[in-house]
UniProtKB/TrEMBL annotation:
PANTHER family: LAO_AO TRANSPORT SYSTEM ATPASE, LYSINE/ARGININE/ORNITHINE TRANSPORT SYSTEM KINASE. Residues 41-253 form the AAA+ ATPase domain. Keywords: Chaperone, GTP-binding, Hydrolase, Nucleotide-binding. NCBIfam families: lao (TIGR00750). This is LAO/AO transport system ATPase. SUPFAM superfamilies: P-loop containing nucleoside triphosphate hydrolases.
Amino acid sequence: MDVAELIAAARDGSTRAAGRLLSLVEGARRDEVLAALGPHRARVVGLTGPPGAGKSTTVAALVALYRQRGLRVAVLAVDPSSPYSGGALLGDRIRMAAHINDPGVLIRSVATRGHLGGLAAAVPAAIRVLAALSYDLVILETVGVGQSEIEIAAIADPTVVVLNPGAGDAVQAAKAGLLEVADIVVVNKADRDGADQTVRDLRGEVSVPILKLVASQGDGVPELVDVIDTHHREDTPERRAARARTQILSLAHTLLRTHPELDRLAGLVADGTHDPYTAAATLFSSPRCGGAPPAP
């Protein structure tokens, strides 16, 4: 199928066609697909947090509740890239298996492929595809590896940070910068010892809503959805513009890191021929960045 046929098939309910479109926007045909779709805005909820906090379990619980309310939901699980294949290492989301055969749910793992910030460069395009295919909500789950995770705030509204009780998770999340971008903080596995103390610790770090959750049992999930909905209704054009600026800067950074002139300029700086300021200006003025040809 060509792109137009894939779009038509996906809008008729073909998950295979939708998956193919998502594959195309991860590659060289991204612009072609986006041009065919036209502009669309999606509602995006982001979940991040340290490994083992229960992000996938929380996502599965959220999907179940949103489906009960009649919403079509897509899940983008952003995974670390395989150093060999470049593919997503965590492609099989076992905890979401209950939703695999639901035509109102699409689950997709996306490899980061070296992009900084915990998000794949193709994620904004994938979200636009899903919005064009009439998914009511996109849930974005990031890999949860620390400082770089804060980029999720550039795309999602709200950003939900999922933590475990005890074990210093609140302190570690603060050190990693996760709490700086949290719109909502969830203490998952709240039936374990230390949950109340973790909530008290968090109240000393953030002023955002803090909820207790037992995602594996669905306890606290309706309350979390209510808080998510309230936050979404309070979004503003200024906040959307700030998120857009961060997305642009992040993707520009990725383009610069893969620029064909970077290695040559690095060599010139290393041997003292160029200073780093001149090299940076040269990189920005090169044809790939839309400027004049690079300096000799």
